[in-house]
């Protein structure tokens, strides 16, 4: 172990220990041994900005479930670990949760690379992972439940909405990693299938944390002055968004001229920006805090009480954990055990209320059904829903618009039990 | 369309507009966007200029529905409550707590419609600046039904500049008319070509494929001329972007040029000093927001000395607490300061939370101005000037003050300096504090363009080291030239190679450069450098 790693892990273990102490009290309350629930979100490093909130929301959900008497008459005990935005550490911490802590289910990961890093561990040790973030698809594992949006539940409807608004020219701007690249590949194929010409699509990638957007915003402005209505589809991730939007505002690009629709910007991200100049820019999600349903109002109230902050916002991945956690509780009660094989089988078909008003169901491909909402940024940093899919959209793990994956399906019900079944050749595992 | 047709039929005889009535305004209070658009249409159809404040409030998000009686009112936030005025008469209607009001929300479609109505309704305002904005709004909306209105306004217009804008708006509308004669199109193309810029290109580009050969030719020629002009502007713009990026890099690196360049301490926690400066700005702004909102435009100036003190103070603590035991042991310094940077990040994360903090731009930092076709944003301009000022101040301090002399003496020959009666330990602490304090100043500037999050500093630490090494360790001029040239090279490469590849090319270039000149651009010569 190098000193650098030593220093880092020393800091982490102190934080970790503090968290453990906080949760130990719960364990003593029940007579039967508690059910352990793993929480695998980065509490330090670059991703802490997004993932800490998800850790908190899990603690809140578990606390509530315990107030209702737990699951199967047993208390739930959260086991929080900190993978510190370090992808290999995600795999180590996942192994620790499954092999040492023997958790019954794990809620965690944000970036696709962290999910890919823990995937072999969950498959080897037969664990259950709930993954709450929108992602690029092209994956279905027996041990993972994808409660965030697949591309057809976010990107494709967003583009449909803009086509309906008369947009003819497209800038696909993204951070340079797997999610934006795959999503943009799907979108490019989709747009071309809709008759958009190659010269009307501009694709741009920037490094993580890109801070100087001057020339790219100027290029977008130039691209948008060809006399056709132009929109930017943004898969820009994390910290790069704030300087991007600031530059847009400074160079005077308004949503009425060139709207930007984002897939990674939610209420939490907007909390760091003065949103007045951004009014009218768009985001596509499956949930907005501004959704007016009684269940959402109750959720927001609980969250703000739990965090003791009346201004704390909620966002889409939080809703995904809310759905995923309730699905897991229901599946465990249905199976009558926490045995992973039985719970995994019981999960398919489970339906729980989502916060947007309606029920989300777990599909055989381990993705869920969700509504898709398009929202416009308001001066107060909230989104106003301007469009909504008429019904629920079923998550499609293998995109129909990519030549490699259009014949593949996933169905984890017996007897098929396959994550990449090729309908053309009739074989499992043939990509 | 329909609304403007109706509107202009009314406005052709300007004094005959209908009276906008409260029920018409109250119709805006609905959740249904189609119904809101309908209400806006019937409002605009009255042609009554007294609805302009209501439309502006709707656009600006200050038009509310009073829940008690569904009346639509204009609200102005006044602490916890909202002061209400009548949208038509402007009469004060008292105050209400925010909970009794509901904001009337707008979407992009409505915003565009509001822009078009406002443009058309204010074309004949007595204020030339308002007429100018109105003409620009009509140029953007290109609503054919506004044409007779424009003609009427043109006939009355005295101000040459506004008149030109009105003519351009008129030409923009005419170009959209398929039935226009070739002659009419050619003259419209000439007017638009005269305007120049991106907006003109957007209008002319579709015409280059026109079936009418004369029109296509004129449009192609105009596009070529404008593009030529824009190409020069783009080159100038890229240089300006480069200087702006360079000034950001300079600000981030200049503190390091002191701690690493002059003192030789490999300070991996340098980025965290920048971050502390940014958080100081945040705290200052929060205080101002709650206690003295009027001072907001001064927040950055207030934050500057505080950021210097906070970051400098932490720097002195670090030097006294850790670094002074590690002089001459670069590897251990590197590891200790790296660990320290993690500790500082996590400490800030624990105190302020992991999410981004909102640091606002004072009004003088927001927006942009045009020089010809070149857009310069105010924020970037001030940061550029600030970077140069910080550099000049540091130069003066090091070259012209006794403290600067002592600093240079200690770093060049510690034993001799001590023999001359300089308290070297104190000078070490002050030098390190100075470098850290300057990093804190950089944090104030960077809070304006970047995220204020615990990770803020990490994004700059590599670049900072690169610049100091590239410019020549120990030479401040080298840091200046290094930062500016890296900024410009980066921005010239970016449009050609893309941001990712551009960055890689710069890195490769620097590696090769360091191979050829291991001591950077401006190498210090002499004995001091040997050990």
Helices and strands in order:
The complex is a heterodimer of chains A (431) and B (531).
Chain A: H1 3-29, E1 35-40, H2 48-67, E2 76-81, H3 87-100, E3 105-108, H4 112-124, E4 129-131, E5 144-146, H5 155-164, E6 169-175, H6 178-193, E7 201-206, H7 214-223, E8 230-235, H8 241-250, E9 260-262, H9 267-270, E10 282-285, H10 294-306, H11 316-335, H12 340-347, E11 351-354, E12 358-361, E13 369-370, E14 373-377, E15 383-388, E16 393-394, E17 408-411, E18 418-422, E19 427-428
Parallel strand pairs in A: 1-2, 1-3, 3-4, 4-5, 6-7, 6-8, 8-9, 9-10
Antiparallel strand pairs in A: 10-14, 11-12, 13-16, 14-15, 17-18, 18-19
Helix pairs in contact in A: 2-11, 3-4, 11-12
Chain B: H1 2-11, H2 22-26, H3 33-45, H4 52-60, E1 63-66, E2 71-78, E3 81-85, E4 92-97, E5 101-103, H5 108-121, H6 128-141, H7 147-156, H8 160-175, H9 182-195, H10 197-204, H11 213-262, H12 270-291, H13 299-321, H14 330-352, E6 368-371, E7 374-377, H15 378-400, H16 402-412, H17 414-419, H18 424-446, H19 458-471, H20 476-497, H21 499-516
Antiparallel strand pairs in B: 1-2, 1-5, 2-3, 3-4, 6-7
Give a nutshell description of this structure.
Chain A has helices spanning 3-29, 48-67, 87-100, 112-124, 155-164, 178-193, 214-223, 241-250, 267-270, 294-306, 316-335, 340-347, and strands spanning 35-40, 76-81, 105-108, 129-131, 144-146, 169-175, 201-206, 230-235, 260-262, 282-285, 351-354, 358-361, 369-370, 373-377, 383-388, 393-394, 408-411, 418-422, 427-428.
């Amino acid at each position: 172990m190098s000193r650098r790693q030593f220093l880092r892990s020393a800091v982490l273990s102190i934080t970790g220990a503090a968290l453990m102490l906080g949760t130990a009290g719960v364990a003593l309350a029940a007579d039967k041994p508690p059910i352990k629930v793993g929480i695998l979100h980065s509490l330090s490093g670059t991703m802490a900005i997004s993932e800490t909130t998800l850790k908190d929301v899990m603690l809140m959900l578990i606390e509530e479930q315990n107030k209702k008497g737990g699951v199967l008459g047993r208390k739930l005990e959260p086991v929080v670990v900190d993978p510190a935005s370090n992808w290999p550490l995600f795999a180590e911490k996942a192994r620790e949760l499954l092999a040492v802590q023997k958790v019954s289910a794990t809620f965690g990961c944000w970036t696709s690379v962290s999910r890919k890093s823990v995937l072999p561990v969950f498959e080897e040790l037969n664990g259950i992972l709930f993954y709450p973030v929108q992602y690029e698809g092209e994956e279905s594992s027996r041990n993972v439940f994808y409660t965030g949006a697949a591309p057809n539940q976010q990107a494709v409807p967003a583009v449909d909405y803009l086509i309906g608004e008369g947009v003819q020219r497209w800038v696909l701007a993204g951070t340079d990693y797997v999610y934006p690249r795959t999503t943009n590949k799907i979108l490019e194929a989709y747009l071309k299938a809709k008759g958009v010409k190659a010269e009307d699509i501009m694709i741009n990638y920037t490094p993580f944390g890109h801070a100087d957007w001057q020339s790219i915003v100027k290029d977008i402005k130039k691209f948008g002055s060809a006399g056709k209505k132009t929109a930017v589809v943004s898969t820009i991730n994390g910290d790069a968004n704030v300087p991007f939007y600031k530059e847009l505002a400074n160079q005077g690009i308004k949503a009425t001229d060139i709207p930007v629709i984002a897939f990674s910007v939610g209420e939490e991200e907007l909390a760091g920006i003065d949103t007045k100049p951004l009014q009218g820019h768009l985001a596509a999600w499956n949930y907005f805090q501004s959704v007016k349903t009684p269940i959402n109002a109750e959720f927001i109230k609980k969250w703000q009480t739990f965090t003791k902050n009346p201004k704390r916002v909620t966002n889409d991945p939080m809703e995904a954990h809310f759905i995923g956690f309730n699905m897991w509780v229901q599946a465990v009660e249905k199976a009558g055990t926490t045995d992973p094989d039985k719970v995994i089988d019981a999960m398919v078909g489970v339906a729980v209320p989502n916060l947007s008003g309606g029920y989300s169901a777990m599909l055989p491909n381990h993705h869920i059904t969700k509504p898709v909402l398009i929202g416009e940024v308001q001066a107060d940093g909230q989104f106003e829903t301007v469009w909504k899919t008429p019904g629920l959209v079923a998550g499609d793990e293998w995109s129909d618009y990519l030549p490699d994956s259009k014949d593949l399906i996933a169905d984890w019900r017996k007897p098929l039990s396959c994550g990449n079944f090729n309908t053309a050749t009739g074989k499992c595992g043939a990509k | 369309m329909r609304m403007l047709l109706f509107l202009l039929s009314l406005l052709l005889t300007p004094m005959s507009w209908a009276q906008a009535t409260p029920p018409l305004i109250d119709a805006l209070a609905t959740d249904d966007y189609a119904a809101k658009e309908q209400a806006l249409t019937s409002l605009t159809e009255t042609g009554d200029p007294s609805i302009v404040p209501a439309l502006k409030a709707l656009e600006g998000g200050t038009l509310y529905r009073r829940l008690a009686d569904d009346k639509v009112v204009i609200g102005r936030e006044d602490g916890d409550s909202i002061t209400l005025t009548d949208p038509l008469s402007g009469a004060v209607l008292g105050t209400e707590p925010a909970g009794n009001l509901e904001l009337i929300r707008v979407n992009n479609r409505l915003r565009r419609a509001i822009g078009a109505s406002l443009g058309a309704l204010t074309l004949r305002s007595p204020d030339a600046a308002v007429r100018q904005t109105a003409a620009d709004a009509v140029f953007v909306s290109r609503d054919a039904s506004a044409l007779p209105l424009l003609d009427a306004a043109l006939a009355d217009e005295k101000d040459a500049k506004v008149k030109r804008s009105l003519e351009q708006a008129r030409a923009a509308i005419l170009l959209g008319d398929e039935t226009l004669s070739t002659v009419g199109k050619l003259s419209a193309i000439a007017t638009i070509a005269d305007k120049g810029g991106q907006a003109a290109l957007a209008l002319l580009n579709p015409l280059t494929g026109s079936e009418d050969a004369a029109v296509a030719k004129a449009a192609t020629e105009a596009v070529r001329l404008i593009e030529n002009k824009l190409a020069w502007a783009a080159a100038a713009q890229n240089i300006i972007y480069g200087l702006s990026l360079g000034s950001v890099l300079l600000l981030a690196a200049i503190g390091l040029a002191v701690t690493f360049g002059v003192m030789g301490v490999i300070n991996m926690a340098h980025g965290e000093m920048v971050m502390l400066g940014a958080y100081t700005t945040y705290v200052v702004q929060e205080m101002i927001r709650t206690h003295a909102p009027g001072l907001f435009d001064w927040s950055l100036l207030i934050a500057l000395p505080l950021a210097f003190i906070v970051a400098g103070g932490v720097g002195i603590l670090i030097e006294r607490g850790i670094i002074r035991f590690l002089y001459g042991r670069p590897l251990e310094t590197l590891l200790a300061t790296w660990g320290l940077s993690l500790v500082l990040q996590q400490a800030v994360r624990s105190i302020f939370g992991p999410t981004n903090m909102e640091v606002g731009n004072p009004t003088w930092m927001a927006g942009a101005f045009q020089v010809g076709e070149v857009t310069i944003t105010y924020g970037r301009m001030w940061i550029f000037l600030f970077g140069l000022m910080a550099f000049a101040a540091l130069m003066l301090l090091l070259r012209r003050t006794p403290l600067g002399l002592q600093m240079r003496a200690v770093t060049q020959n510690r034993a001799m300096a001590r023999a001359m009666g300089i308290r070297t330990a104190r000078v070490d602490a002050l030098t390190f504090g100075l470098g850290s304090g300057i990093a804190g100043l950089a944090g104030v500037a960077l809070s304006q363009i970047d995220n204020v999050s615990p990770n803020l500093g990490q994004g700059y630490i590599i670049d900072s080291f690169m610049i100091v090494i590239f410019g020549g360790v120990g030479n401040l001029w080298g840091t200046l030239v290094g930062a500016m040239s890296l900024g410009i090279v980066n921005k010239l490469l970016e449009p050609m190679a893309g941001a990712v590849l551009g960055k890689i090319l710069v890195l490769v270039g620097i590696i090769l450069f360091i191979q050829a000149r291991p001591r950077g651009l401006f190498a210090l010569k002499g004995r001091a450098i040997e050990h």
